[in-house]
Amino acid sequence: MKIVHPPPFPTRVFINLTNLQANLRLLQKLAGRAALFPAVKANAYGHGARKVVSQCLKEGYNTFCVAHLAEALALKQAGLQAHYLIMTPFLPPLADEIVRHSFMPVVCTLEQVHRLARAVKKQNKSVKIHLKVDTGMGRVGIKEKDVFPFLNAVKQAQGVEIEGVMSHYPRADEMDASYTSTQTKRFEKIRKKLRPYQIPCFHIANSAALAHQDNAAFDAVRPGIALYGLNPFGLKESSTMADLKPVMSWKTRVVFLKEVSAGTGLSYGHAFVASSRMLIATLPVGYGDGLRRILSNKMEVIIGGKRCPQVGRICMDQTLVDVSSLEGQVKVGDEVVLLGRQGTAEMSAEEMADKASTINYEVVTGITSRVPRIFIS
Hints:
Number of strands: 20
Oligomer: single chain
Number of helices: 11
Radius of gyration: 24 Å
Number of domains: 2
CATH topology of the largest domain: TIM Barrel
Largest sheet: 10 strands, mixed
CATH superfamily of the largest domain: Alanine racemase
Shape: elongated
Helix content: 25-40%
CATH class of the largest domain: Alpha Beta
């Protein structure tokens, strides 16, 4: 007789690579002739950067956005040869490593340019950079008035090639697109002025802009959240994003069942007290796995195709669910869906984010590394 062993860690995340492929094709259709630079920072928004990059490479994409040098290094050391655009401004001492591995840094200070030029000379190589211009984000980037002096200074740095000029939208996820439209026009104005420099690539659009800004694609688009099948507008309507397919599902198992009587306090602080006899299921998942504590007594999970309310405070490693409606049907070992579908019932990252007063980005990136990622296609 074959013995079936349960998984050593019952809480797992499943990544559907077929859905990722479908999202890539939908986003490319929206982008038209513009290239896609998939954003795979923060472990591909919690989805597993190595597998995501590998799948994108199979689809013909070879330029990826990461946040830091360490992320680019990890992917390259995994054998994933591609162009990596390092989005966060780097500290000057890291210039040698960036040049050594032929990464493309985003720059916004002349000190960065000078350190790159020194590294290029020392290693007898060249480096391609993308200049970040602040057109309204207010975070990093040079001011619009400083673009020409900056580019002229870069031209004096031998071996430092200007591959791209980029910016970023701070309000593209708002249904009122007036500010974003104004920002797009400003970026277009910059591009026209820079034509004599023959810079190959101008890019500004994220997922939300790709959905609602017809003229925002320019030469490349940097899709992030939409790549993973999540709506950049949260629970707000967006017909353009309606065909996205969520790539991630998050599941666990029932590990314990008990009856409690009226008046029984549950979990830390007794933030929930049973008002009548109840059947309570214990799940081996908590904020140590990324199930946010703020969701205590606010969220639901899916068991047996039905929504069941979470009760009591979410602990580091366990949480409790009221399964009274499933009495006689639920048993230890049953599958529990935290994110995803079971039968006709569904729990989306957008709904979970709304209940936690946050955004779907934080929900998926917040699932910790101790939760295994299982890749399916």
